[in-house]
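Hi F.,

I've been meaning to write this up properly since the lab meeting, where we talked about keeping a consistent format for the predictions we share between groups. The idea is simple: the sequence comes first, exactly as it goes in, then the structure tokens exactly as they come out, then a line or two of notes. No screenshots and no reformatting. I'm using this chain as the first example so we have something concrete to point to.
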Amino acid sequence: MAQNRTNQPEEVRSEFTETVVAIDRVSRTVKGGRRMRFRALVVVGDGNGRVGAAVAKGQEVQSAVQKATAAAKRSMIRVAITDKGSIAHEIQVSQGATTVLLKPASEGTSVIAGGPVRAVVTAAGIENVLSKCIGSNNKVNVVMATLTALQSLKAKAA
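Output, unedited:
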């Protein structure tokens, strides 16, 4: 907590929403046995067309999440959102063995998407979209494919 001039604690609020999509325990084998670390996949967005995601490792869960959050804030992209809170056109992007399909939806449809896609789309501020993951459902690949799809969207000419 930050201190203001009167030494009263004031709440520090971030303009970004942070969503932890996955936390995994990973290990490497060394001469003395296994060394355990944690890997965090975090999505960060402002709900107004900016979103980023990153993966980071740390000795503890908290340090992994903090590293991933900082990296996600550094790698934010701008997303073109229509007036109706959807995307301009249908798009399909592959990342590894994962293919993510995003389709625009009419007003009132809401977000119809699985966990990793929902985290990215919601953080970006998209309110109406349909999605389908084809192939592998590896969370890291799904998040990265969704980000690539959102980044390559063309804004609808008004």
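Notes:
The chain has a mean pLDDT of 90.
The chain has three helices and ten strands.

If this format works for you, I'll send the rest the same way.

G.
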